[in-house]
Amino acid sequence: GESVGLHLPTLSVQEGDNSIINCAYSNSASDYFIWYKQESGKGPQFIIDIRSNMDKRQGQRVTVLLNKTVKHLSLQIAATQPGDSAVYFCAENPSKGQNFVFGPGTRLSVLP
Amino acid sequence: KAGVTQTPRYLIKTRGQQVTLSCSPISGHRSVSWYQQTPGQGLQFLFEYFSETQRNKGNFPGRFSGRQFSNSRSEMNVSTLELGDSALYLCASSLGPTETYNSPLHFGNGTRLTVT
């Protein structure tokens, strides 16, 4: 499959443990954020989103936390599974009508 | 509902040639964005089309162009190909902005372009 980053930060976790992936965003005016998962040979897949009027949002096994004070976003994955192994990207949207800006990505590796 | 479809999946071209990539968005989506993905630069925004009009443009040379048709399908064209244009080209569709906020992007699996 395609390589999505030769020098990506890598997070290795044991199967069944919780994972936390962090993202520092750049624009304090950004009001909408999305986490994407990209598996080898595929395009980024939407996981969860959050708007700036919230600081936490939960999905199935995933939670996104937003700290606007320090411009920080995190993705928590509960009970990490081998199928969670992928590259994870955060994306920020500065305002309505503007394009999304993507972070460099983090490679998650799940150890058996 | 079918996802975003990109064709072709793989493409090999020679320097100096031109190439056209195609994208069919999710039914009902009116916005199409194009991104270039490389190991060194990550995901870089090329342009976005909404209702057949280019609404946003990234920082790429004029060799990169695009268009959108009335059925929301989109094409991007790269002329006078260079070795550095080798990349995964991703198309994403969305509903487009409402009055108050943007909607999420949904990506296709990309076209892998190799320039030799």
Report a brief summary of the structure:
The complex is a heterodimer of chains A (112) and B (116). By secondary structure, chain A is mainly beta.
Quickly list its features.
heterodimer; A: 112 residues; four-stranded antiparallel sheet; 50% strand; disordered N terminus; B: 116 residues; mainly beta; seven-stranded mixed sheet; 52% strand
Number of strands of chain A: 10
Strand percent estimate of chain B: over 45%
Q: Portion of residues in helices of chain B? A: under 10%
Structural class by sheet pairing and helices of chain B: mainly beta
* Main sheet makeup of chain A: 6 strands, mixed
Order of helices and strands of chain B: EEEEEEEEEEE
Specify the structural class of chain A.
mainly beta
Structural summary, described in words:
- With about 110 residues, chain A is mainly β.
- Chain A has strands at about 10-15, 20-25, 30-40, 45-50, 55-60, 60-65, 70-75, 85-95, 100, 105-110.
- In chain A, the strands form two sheets. In chain A, strands 1, 3, 4, 8, 9 and 10 form a six-stranded mixed sheet that branches. In chain A, strands 2-7-6-5 form a four-stranded antiparallel sheet, with no helix packed on it.
- Chain A is globular and about 40 Å long.
- With about 120 residues, chain B is mostly beta strands.
- Chain B has strands spanning about 5, 10-15, 20-25, 30-40, 40-50, 55, 65-70, 75-80, 85-95, 105, 110-115.
- In chain B, strand 5 and strand 6 (about 55) form a beta hairpin.
- Chain B is globular.
